[in-house]
Design a protein that fits this description.
The chain has 560 residues and is α/β, with parallel strands linked by helices. Helix content is 45%, strand content 13%. The strands form 3 sheets. Strands 5-13-12-7-11-8-10-9 form an 8-stranded mixed beta sheet, sandwiched between helices. A 4-stranded antiparallel beta sheet has the order 2-3-1-4. The two termini are 57 Å apart. 35% of the residues are buried.
Length: 560
């Protein structure tokens, strides 16, 4: 991989992230809903937490020992702090605490939590209640009940062990007393010596048992120390309404972004210019300003000449035309095919017409070819220029199926000049007409110096007409609304165009909004006109039909 490729990828990655973030921000409804949910949740937690008080106490747990200060004393190491924590929250301790505090067992168990700080023998009791006094009373009652329960357990174990040693000691003492009586009655020195030896052994056992009993009685049964008693809190335990609103807002924004990301993942439409470029593998040549739509037509498209509010749109057309004519990447592309991915081709027709006018304004010889032989309409929607073209001016031969029929109409583009239109007509075999030799010679007009041919074809995914022309032009210009076209459609368009031997040259984006009426047509200024020509819009006039009133017959040029 070259250094240039690595640099391009490094540059594209932040651009892609910025583009994705901009797409997420467009889902303002989801973001607002997430923020609202977060704020409501934060307000609820903040308001409910304002009535909660928490008191805390801490107990250092210890084991029973004779001398806790003895060197090497390790009695506390035998404590299982996990078991002690479970004991502290047991129902037995809870009942004792409820008796001390005078509160129901269930409420006291719900309010108390016992935790253990890491690497310590400390149990931390926390009680949350509706008042400060109840919180302090509950935590102290639980602490005292735990210590009492643990001390009672220790004393009970000691008492049982002492009882066991006493049961062993009593027979030995009775046996020694009986032995003393035998020694007093014995007269044989040898027998006396034997009895004395037995007595010595009994005395040793008695001393051992007495020592065990004494050690148990000397044990310190204190189960632990309260190192932090529970006191009444002076303020509610919650973080406060302001902080909870802030946290809720942050969580809400995160939820909104997550919902927007999920919506974006499952959204089949393209949402930005960058995504259109990545999907089609071609740059965005221009973005037409938002147009208004109404009635049966699409939004209005202004003239290249300024006037009647069409200046911004006209300048965008000029920008696209200038880029196609002078950009070094497009300068050699003199045959352009203008198509839409699917659906209506009205906006594509407007782009083709205005690009032709833009090229004519640059002084080029422009030929607009209407290759829509299924629903041709430009003849009825455009007005011819004054005067007539000479018969030799770009007059193609009669093609198979009756198209091209040798008819060319000079179209007045107002102050931009004029260009020629080869109108479409219905034929039986569209594919044969589009690939005929006369059609090929027609497209070859762009080989002349200073000439350009703009071809308008039906939508790529509706008919295969555009694919039949893809290898006969220098590039395909796709016209689409990024919010209406699906990503899969653009991928399919790219694959079909490439498979047909063509190349996608660029994309012209547009958008529409409801309302208003559109106007389309190159208007010639009469004597009463005070403004430059109006918008160049092919849908101003109704589509040609068998019942529509015919327009004045344009002058037909003979076929040589």
């Amino acid at each position: 991989m070259s250094d240039t490729t690595r640099a391009d990828e490094a540059t594209d990655e932040p651009d892609l992230l910025r583009d994705q973030f901009r797409q997420l921000v467009r889902y303002r409804g989801l973001l607002a809903a997430g923020l609202l949910v977060g704020l409501l949740g934060g307000a609820w937690v903040g308001l409910t937490g304002a009535d909660t008080y928490s008191a805390t106490s801490e107990v250092l747990v210890r084991a029973a020992t004779v001398d806790p200060f003895a060197t090497g004393a390790t009695a506390d190491k035998g404590i299982n702090i996990g078991s002690e924590r479970q004991t502290a929250v047991s129902s037995t301790v809870a009942k004792a605490a409820a008796a001390i505090a005078g509160r129901p067992v269930e409420s006291l168990q719900k309010c108390v939590q016992v935790t253990n700080p890491p690497n310590t023998l400390v149990l931390r009791f926390t009680c949350s209640a509706g008042s400060a006094s109840d919180a302090a009373t509950g935590v102290n009652a639980f602490t005292k009940a735990y210590l009492n329960y643990r001390e009672a357990q220790t004393k009970g174990i000691i008492a049982r062990m002492i009882s066991g040693y006493q049961s062993q000691l009593s027979p030995v003492v009775k046996q020694r007393n009986d032995l003393l009586k035998q020694i007093q009655r014995a007269t044989d020195p040898q027998v006396v010596g034997t009895l004395v030896s037995v007595q010595t052994n009994l005395l040793g056992r008695i001393s051992e048992l007495d020592g065990e009993i004494g050690g148990l009685k000397a044990l310190d049964t204190n189960p632990g120390f309260v190192i932090k008693p529970g006191v009444e809190p002076t303020a509610p335990s919650g973080p406060g309404l302001a902080m909870m609103l802030g946290l809720g807002g942050g969580v809400g924004i995160a939820l909104g972004l997550l919902a927007a990301w999920v919506r974006l993942v499952f959204d089949p439409t393209v949402r930005s210019e960058g995504e259109v470029t990545r999907t089609l593998g071609a740059p965005v040549l221009g973005t037409l300003p938002r147009a208004r739509r109404g009635g049966k037509g699409s939004g209005p498209l202004p003239l290249l000449a300024e006037g009647q509010g069409g200046g911004r749109l006209a300048e965008e057309y000029r920008s696209v035309g200038f880029r196609l004519a002078h950009d070094k990447r497009f300068a050699d592309r003199r045959r352009l095919l203008v198509v839409a991915p699917r659906g209506s081709s009205e906006t594509a027709a407007a782009v083709a017409v205005n690009l032709s006018a833009s090229f004519a304004e640059m002084g080029m010889e422009v030929l607009l070819v209407e290759a829509d032989l299924r629903t041709p309409s430009l003849t009825a929607r455009l007005r011819t220029a004054d005067g007539a073209r000479p018969g030799w001016a770009r007059s193609p031969g009669l093609g198979d199926g009756g198209w091209p029929a040798g008819l060319q109409l000079p179209i007045d583009a107002g102050e931009a000049g004029s260009f020629d239109l080869v109108p479409g007509r219905r034929v039986r075999n569209v594919a044969r007409a589009l690939t005929s030799a006369p059609a090929t010679r027609l497209f070859a007009e762009a080989d002349e110096p200073g000439a350009a041919v703009v071809v308008l074809a039906p939508a790529v995914l509706a008919y295969a007409d555009a694919l039949a022309l893809a290898d006969r032009v220098d590039g395909v210009v796709v016209v689409c609304d990024p919010r209406a076209v699906h990503r899969a459609d653009l991928v399919r368009v790219r694959e079909l165009v490439h498979a047909a031997g063509g190349a996608v040259l660029g994309v012209v984006l547009h958008a529409a909004e409801p309302g208003g009426r559109r106007r389309f047509g190159l208007r010639r200024r009469g004597s009463g006109d005070t403004a430059p020509p109006a918008a160049f819009d092919p849908t101003d006039l109704p589509a040609a039909s068998s019942t529509a009133a015919p327009l004045p017959a344009p002058e037909r040029h003979p076929v040589p």
